[in-house]
Structures are given as structure tokens and as C-alpha cells.
Amino acid sequence: MSDLHVVLGATGAIGSAVVAELTARGHDLRAVSRNVTPGPHALRADVTTAEGAVAACRDAAVVYQCAQPPYARWAAEFPAFIRAVLAGVEAAGAKLVMADNLYVYGPVTGPMTEDLPHAATDPKGRVRAEVDALILDAHRAGRVRAALGRASDYYGPGGTDTVAGPNIFAAALRGRTARWVGDLDQPHTLAYLPDVAAALVTLGERPEADGRAWHLPAAEPVTGRAFLGLVRDAAGTTFRAAGLGRATQRLVGLVNPTVRELGETWYQHDRPFVADDSAFRAAFGPVRVTPHAEAVAATLDWYRGR
């Protein structure tokens, strides 16, 4: 039986972390990306087409879907992309592990659990719900085996395209203003990239994970003010800490398309945004997650080396 684990989007932040975790666990590996350097364990392929996805997934036991369209093009491109990936996974007779997020729920009151309705009304939330339905419908139909691993905003080595990325870590190291997106005093679940990768690989290894979504384990929710305090303690630099409010987001969004897109899901930043990961811990525990202080220090070390 094949032990080949294939990572789609292997050069991205989550994909790179999954590649490292699979290597550490000793699995046979194929890293797939349009940008990867071809080699014995790496394949350059375009998985937005069924032909590319079939080639990328050939002989796989587990496929980790860590790729995605550009953020501003999710609504237009994600469903067709996932249909292509499903074609590749089905042709290989493999299991699909989807690196997912929390957009499907929309604004909520209280911690998010996996049994909440998919009530998002914004375009990004609606398309994530559509994508998840495509995957789970394929699982129920017996076309593939599948599990979804949902994580909140992440940070960590390699995490540059994230709200907790250069605007905090690179800015702090340069002595500039480190900006938290949203209200500085609202609790927010932040996931550390190596912890996200470890949980996704666990879902790939464990058959009891199949057929549902799981919230991936993360350290305790943290406010922006407290998180920036941890960065200040570890950075060894002097910098100003500030929150990026809605008015500033709108203003910056006039010239910055990425910041402009944040307005669609601003509810994730102006109130508590907390994920309950107790189901994962009960099913697959004991689980060790990296404390924020340790994770912040490791992330700063990575940024220093850039």
C-alpha cells in the first residue's frame, strides 16, 4: 500500500510547514507547486486543471490541499479549483485533507464549534461553504475520503501573507509601528504554522478523522495588545504598537487591494473571534501546541534571517 503523501501548494506558508512535518514523521513525500524546483520529491504542476491535478496526485495515499486562488479571486475561482483537485484525488484513490479556515460561520456570538451553521453571507464565506460542501459531498458519495482542518489566522516561520505577518514581526524588528488588524482588546485565536501542519498531518494519518471538519488546536486566544506585548518582549527593539481600525482600513484599502479585501470580513477583527478545538483534542489527544511566547520568538528569529 502506498505511503505517498502529496502536498499541493507546497511552497506556500501552510504547504511548506506540512512538507516539514511529513519529513519529520518519515512519510514518503511529493511536494507540488507551480513554483517548485523539480526533483526526486518535487513536481511542478498546475493543479487548477484536472489534468494537472491527476498528474500531481498520481499514486498518492493522502493529498493535502494547501493551495488556493489569490484572496481577491476566491469567489470566482475556488469552486472550479476544488473540482479539479477532487478529480486528481479520486483518480488516485487517495484521501484528501483540506487546509480550511473559519469563514463559513460568518459573525457569531461565543466560541466557534464545528456544529455551527454555515451562515456566512459575505462572498468569501459563501464560497468557502460551497467548497466545503463539494468536498464532503464527494466523501459521502464514496468518490474520495476527506477531512477538513480549519484554522484561524496563522503566524510563524514562512507566514508572510497573513494579518499577523510582516506588519507585526518585520515592523517590530525595524523599530517601526507594529500594527494589529482590528480592535487591540478583543480576544482572537491565532494559530502557529507548525502546529497547523502537525494537526493536518494527524488528520491525514487517522481514518477516524474522515468525513467531517475539525478545528485545529491552537494556543489560548490572545488580544492584540497582549500579542504585541509578547513581540516587544522577544524582539529586543523599541517600536510603537497600534491597532488598524475600520476607518484606517478603508483609507488604506483605497490604494492597497489586500487591505481593501479585509473589509468584507471585518467581523473577524472587531469582536471576539475564538475557535473551540476541544473536539480535535478529545479525538486525537494528547495534543501539544506551542505557547505563544515560544512561537513569537521562533517567528522573530525567522524574520531576522530574511
UniProtKB/TrEMBL annotation:
Keyword Acyltransferase in annotation: no
Pfam families in alphabetical order: Epimerase
NAD-dependent epimerase/dehydratase domain sequence ranges: 6-210
UniProt keyword Ligase, yes or no: no
Keywords for the protein's UniProt record, in alphabetical order: Plasmid
UniProt protein name: NAD-dependent epimerase/dehydratase family protein
Taxonomic source organism: Actinomadura luzonensis
